[in-house]
UniProtKB/TrEMBL annotation:
SUPFAM superfamilies: Glyoxalase/Bleomycin resistance protein/Dihydroxybiphenyl dioxygenase. This is Glyoxalase. Residues 4-113 form the VOC domain. It comes from Streptomyces musisoli.
Length: 116
């Protein structure tokens, strides 16, 4: 059971300003451009902007590790001392996300795409 780091989500307060900055940084147009989420794909990396991130407890960028069994990995992290910030949630199309805080206060996200 491997995990790969392919996604990072930034909490943003001003979505338009963040879109201008990340568009300039990444040099690509967003693949998703909604009031609740803007997503970019660049160099194999998925970069997201979440205007509700601060309200969800995000204090900075959150790396999302892509896993094959999110619920099993989430349980293992909790057993290892992590605190659940966001329990497993389907964010559309069968994609599951969850996030935890480790003992040092670092945020760690988990992401599971639907089986191909």
């Amino acid at each position: 059971m491997t995990a790969g780091l392919q996604t990072i989500i930034y909490p943003v307060k001003d979505l338009d300003r963040a879109k201008a900055l990340f568009g300039a940084l990444l040099g690509v147009e967003p693949y998703a451009d909604e009031p609740y989420y803007v997503g970019y794909k660049a160099a194999g990396q998925d970069v997201g902007l979440d205007p509700n991130g601060h309200a969800k407890g995000m204090t900075g960028p959150v790396p999302y590790w892509h896993v094959t069994d999110l619920r099993q990995r989430l349980a293992a992290l909790v057993e290892a001392g992590a605190e659940v910030l966001q329990d497993a949630q389907d964010v559309g199309g069968g994609r599951l996300i969850a996030s935890v805080k480790d003992a040092e206060g670092n945020l760690v996200g988990l992401l599971q795409d639907p089986a191909a």
